[in-house]
Amino acid sequence: MQRSTFEKKHPWVVFCYVMSVLVITMITMHPVMIGVSFVAALIYSFFLCGKKVGKMMFAAALGIGFFSMVILPLFHHSGETPLFYINDMAVTKESVIYGGVMTLLLLAVLLWFLVWNELMGQEKWLYLIGRAMPSIALIVSMVLRLLPLLRHRLQDIAEAQKGLQAQEPVSERGGRLRHFIGKKGVSGLHQLSILISWSLEDSMETATSMETRGYGIRRRSSFHLYQFHRSDAIWLVYLLAVSGEVLVFVARGAVSSAYFPMIEWKSGTVETLLCQLGFALLTVTPCAYDILQAVWERHRRNAVREQAYEQKEQAYLEQMYGVHK
Fold first, then answer.
1. Torsion angle, CA of 103/105/106/107, rounded to 10 degrees?
2. What is the DSSP secondary structure assignment for residue 86, as one 8-state letter?
3. What DSSP string describes 98-154?
4. Longest dimension (CA), the chain
5. What pLDDT is stored for residue 53 in this prediction?
6. What distance in Å separates the CA atoms of residue 259 and residue 253, rounded to the nearest whole number?
7. 271 phi, psi to nearest 5 deg
8. Least CB-packed of 52, 174, 201, 230 within 10 Å?
9. CA–CA distance, 42 with 55 (Å, rounded to integer)
10. Of 64-78, 99-113, 130-144, 284-298, where does mean pLDDT reach its minimum?
11. Spatial distance between the Cα atoms of 29 and 34, rounded to a whole number of angstroms
């Protein structure tokens, strides 16, 4: 996983970027706009998460694509260009292409939520909505923390039982929910019982700790490390300006599209090109910024490493031979 430089920006900057890209992606069905969003999200998610995105996308594309491009056209017969007939019911080209565009749209949204998960953490959520809605912010942060915490606790329980040899040896994947059934159902249910007891006890301790620390009183203080700098203001103005320009063109119908009864979408006009160019800039700029920063950081580290090597070489020559390079 790469360390994102854009992630260090102010939470409002990151929130504005991801939310604007998601909203524009979901309100348009123009194939060029969806293709730009998908490619940008794929590149950025690969940069942030690494190779695991490829496996996840392959499995998701197979499932969503099979349902949208194979199953749905068998039941949705709108369109004027039949490809073949099944029981006198036409499977049309428009339905297949519409299913392909919907598949690309769903994959793009999935990838952007993956980017959202990497860029927006619990602390940023608490900062954004903590003062206005402290109870909701607390609930959201606890929910986001719950599933990873339960998974880690379940793995600890499985490893502890394996170490104590209290019952049958548990496999390396014994901490997963699908192993609660079958031959190891008893072991899995025992682990689940321990997990529930542990979680309930921890929740009682958390509630007691929050009460003793004064949670629920009217006056409430907060602490955060985020500061709004001039660069954050520049980023925010840029993102709002570009996303606003794209939304205006979308509202004016610059990227309108239709798939039934025939395929038609706007292309070639000045407004359409400006809208597509603006959306491409909106999606690509933070990703390109992160990639350039990573390349520059790698170049800097190589330069520091080479300088240190030259200093060691110079010291060795001076010590052994008295030679000044």
1. 80
2. E
3. HHHHHHHHHHHHHHHHHHHHHH--HHHHHHHHTTT-HHHHHHHHHHHHHHHHHHHHH
4. 94
5. 84
6. 15
7. -65, -40
8. 230
9. 12
10. 130-144
11. 7
Pairing between β-strand 257-258 and β-strand 89-92 as defined by DSSP bridges:
unpaired
Q: Which amino acid is it at 75? A: F
Question: What 8-state DSSP symbol labels residue 204?
Answer: H
User: Does residue 261 have a cis bond before it (omega within 30 degrees)?
Assistant: yes
Q: Which residue has the tokens 């749209």?
A: 105
Task: Determine contact, residues 112/21, Cβ cutoff 8 Å.
Answer: yes
Give the tokens for residue 273.
């090109």
Q: Annotate 174-196 with DSSP letters as a single string.
A: TTSGGGGSGGGHHHHHHHHHHHH
Distance CA 30, CA 27 (A): 9
Separation between Cα atoms, residue 259 and residue 29, nearest integer Å: 9
Tokens of 77: 């017969």
Average pLDDT over residues 63-71: 86
Q: Which string of DSSP letters, residue by residue, matches 9-31?
A: S-HHHHHHHHHHHHHHHHH---H
- Amino acid letter at 237? V
Q: What are the residues whose beta carbons fall under 8 Å from the beta carbon of 239, sequence distance 6 or more?
A: 13, 16, 17, 20, 282
8-state DSSP, 83: E
Q: How far apart are CA 111 and CA 201, in angstroms?
A: 37
Tell me what pLDDT residue 170 has.
45
H or E element: which one contains 270? helix 270-321
